[in-house]
């Protein structure tokens, strides 16, 4: 992936899986592997950012009266 077009979450995950599969095969030359690793890290970051955005959107609950409220959820430990 050489262009920096905005991918959907699903497209980015699919690309990331493709990169990981190729790297796991182990027959990629070192310089190509480094380039693919960088691509994978960029895709991983893109997926993470999209998940964070969705998480923030999920924190906003629409009330019956149409008002939005920002809620914070904490995990139980």
UniProtKB/TrEMBL annotation:
Stretch forming the signal peptide: none
Gene Ontology molecular functions: exodeoxyribonuclease VII activity
Keywords, sorted A to Z: Cytoplasm, Exonuclease, Hydrolase, Nuclease
Predominant location category: cytoplasm
Nuclease listed as a keyword: yes
Keyword field contains Cell cycle: no
Compartments where found: Cytoplasm
An example Gene Ontology CC term for this record: exodeoxyribonuclease VII complex
Principal EC category: hydrolase
EC nos: 3.1.11.6
Catalysed reaction, written as an equation: Exonucleolytic cleavage in either 5'- to 3'- or 3'- to 5'-direction to yield nucleoside 5'-phosphates
Source superkingdom: Bacteria
Alphabetized Gene3D superfamilies for the sequence: Exonuclease VII, small subunit
GO biological process, one term: DNA catabolic process
Job description of the protein: Bidirectionally degrades single-stranded DNA into large acid-insoluble oligonucleotides, which are then degraded further into small acid-soluble oligonucleotides.
Subunit structure: Heterooligomer composed of large and small subunits.
Family (UniProt): Belongs to the XseB family.
HAMAP family the record matches: Exonuc_7_S
Name of the protein this chain belongs to: Exodeoxyribonuclease 7 small subunit
Name of the gene: xseB
């Amino acid at each position: 992936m050489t262009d920096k077009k905005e991918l959907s979450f699903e497209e980015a995950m699919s690309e990331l899986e493709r990169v990981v599969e190729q790297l796991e095969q182990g027959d990629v030359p070192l310089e190509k592997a480094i380039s693919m690793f960088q691509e994978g890290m960029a895709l991983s970051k893109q997926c993470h950012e999209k998940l964070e955005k969705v998480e923030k959107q999920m924190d906003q609950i629409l009330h019956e009266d149409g008002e939005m409220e920002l809620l914070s959820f904490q995990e139980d430990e």
